[in-house]
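Journal club prep — side note

Before the paper discussion, L.F. wants everyone to see what a predicted structure for a comparable chain looks like in token form. Sequence:
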Amino acid sequence: MIKAAVIGNPIKHSRSPLIHKHWLNKIGIDGSYEAMYAENERDFIGLVEKLKEGGYSGFNITIPFKKIASEIVDKTINNDLSFYNKETPAINTIKIERDKLVGYNTDYFGFSSLLQQKIESIEKIKNIIILGAGGAAKSIAYGLSESFRNREKDEIRNLIILNRSLSKAEELSFALKNIDSPLNLAYGSLDKFEENIENCDLLINSTSLGMEGVEDNLTLNLNNSKKDLFIYDIVYTPLETNLLSSARKLNLNFTNGLGMLINQAAPAFCLFYNYDNLDNLLEDKLLYEKLEENIGA
């Protein structure tokens, strides 16, 4: 049996086991996938050692261990499915190969593949706000930088990073400048949201605010936003957060993080279980319906 897992805190909300078990049953692979709780970074590192000793094929990493995961890997992969850069260190997938840890980040692949389905054209996006400066924000900001790097040089695109901790927003902005991001970069605290929303084309919530199991919520005033603003909340439990409810009331276009969850899981599944038909996983409408029913229950 091929064994894999996901480690996080909180972890009860995770639907990753449901996703991987669905694919294992669908394809007929003899495998398992389980959710594991780690109290802190020390606990996380201890769990990783147990997975290595236990013969696991690999594991996923979620909040808040993506940064520490980048520090313990022996090797990192950067390709069309894995967007990783040492200046914005975050790992969400680790494959165990001959007792070595090989790190990947499939978050941006999951994020961008859904975004391309939801918006008319990525070319029309000029002004972006990312809420948060953690692992998911790093992956998305780095991926956006790379996506726009080879596009029209005379097109000015702006990225503003807003975070509760101003120092972390500054740190991410500085890291993006170090990789020569083609985006005009700015940062601030979350209380600067209203003065920046007017010209925003794409608003991304990369924080856990509003997620089940997280006490704090995200309450933002969208009244001054553009009519064609697109809102991307990577939270998927609940399916409609306070932010998305506000967007619905204003008839704004939006998506939750369910599609991103599925799409970022697909490359990891292929790695863990030696499966090579990625498109078969990405086009699984039955899984999407199953997840919506499970989360909405």
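L.F.'s comment for the group: The domain at 2-105+259-296 is CATH 3.40.50.10860 (Rossmann fold). Keep this in mind when we get to the figures.
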